[in-house]
Amino acid sequence: MSCHRSSTPATAFQLFRYSAVTWNPHRIHFDEPYAREEGHAGVALHSHLRAALALRCVAEGLGPGWHVTKVAYRLRKPVYAPRRTGLHRPGDGNRGRHHDT
What we know:
Elements: H1 12-21, H2 32-37, H3 47-62, E1 86-87, E2 98-99
Antiparallel strand pairs: 1-2
């Protein structure tokens, strides 16, 4: 897979911009002191942004001859910025399981 690790980490600024574009005003995604008051370890990555970053890796890995037509995902725990996101591919020692997404 060509996108073993994304080249850009998810930062608090990126999360603020994603909140604005998606009209998601929940402060846990861009206000770190507030997120900590709510019991988070920092600014939380949006679930849809995490899925989009993972899907981008999959699409890049498949190449231009393939098209993703349906996606289902389940996020099991929160991830906080700044954080690199990515996927492990089968045979990389992680049994093809998701990593950091």
